[in-house]
Write a structure and sequence with these properties.
Blueprint (H helix, E strand, L loop, with lengths): L23 E6 L3 H17 L7 E6 L5 H11 L5 E9 L5 H20 L3 E8 L2 H6 L1 E3 L2 E2 H18 L1
The structure holds ligand DLZ.
Length: 163
């Protein structure tokens, strides 16, 4: 296979690789559980639909989105056989600066864990102004970002395996 990109438009919607040979962790925040539960169901269904074996999916809850980084770090530290971790959460803007601190921390934290272990750690966290925007992205009119997170995880694991 050539390693040269021809035209980026050729690569914008590449097919999803088969996930049968890979193991995935899913860490889900309990805050805004109605939303994160929908993200989780979407991610799980998408992994299974793309060949990932049920016994190769390891799912764990954490209290809030802030804990997603710690959860991913602990999981990859204890389970070196896991190929990628999908972090799912929903942070909804409130009256205080809490939103900004949590969003910044989890985005940076997820990035850092991925770099530390050289494995895909996927940012499947909704950061919305209100509940309606979150519902729209958790199975509503803008799709389910849990599905997208799962597809990203499979693509990145396959990228890592074949580079
Ligand atoms: C405290 C808090 C607040 C106010 N809002 C959210 C939120 O919208 N989404 C979310 O996932 N978590 C929230 N949390 C909890 C924090 O993520 C975290 O669990 C606590 O600050 C304890 O570290």
């Amino acid at each position: 296979m050539s390693t040269q990109l021809k035209n980026l438009s050729d690569f914008s919607h590449t097919t999803v690789p088969n996930g049968a040979n890979y193991k995935f962790g899913i860490i889900v925040a309990e805050w805004n559980a109605e939303i994160t539960g929908a993200l989780y169901n979407g991610a799980l269904k998408t992994l299974l639909e793309n060949g990932v074996k049920e016994e190769n999916i390891f799912s764990f809850p954490v209290p809030g989105s802030f804990e997603l980084t710690g959860g991913a770090e602990i999981l990859l530290n204890k389970r070196s056989d896991i190929d990628a971790v999908i972090c799912l959460g929903c942070v909804i803007q409130g009256d205080t600066k809490h939103f900004d601190f949590i969003c910044d921390a989890v985005a940076q934290g997820v990035t850092n864990v991925g770099i530390k272990y050289s494995k895909p750690v996927i940012f499947g966290v909704l950061t919305t102004n209100n509940l309606e925007q979150a519902q729209d992205r958790a199975g509503g009119k803008h799709g389910n970002k849990g599905d997208e997170a799962a597809i990203t995880a499979i693509k990145m694991v396959d990228f890592s395996a074949n580079i």
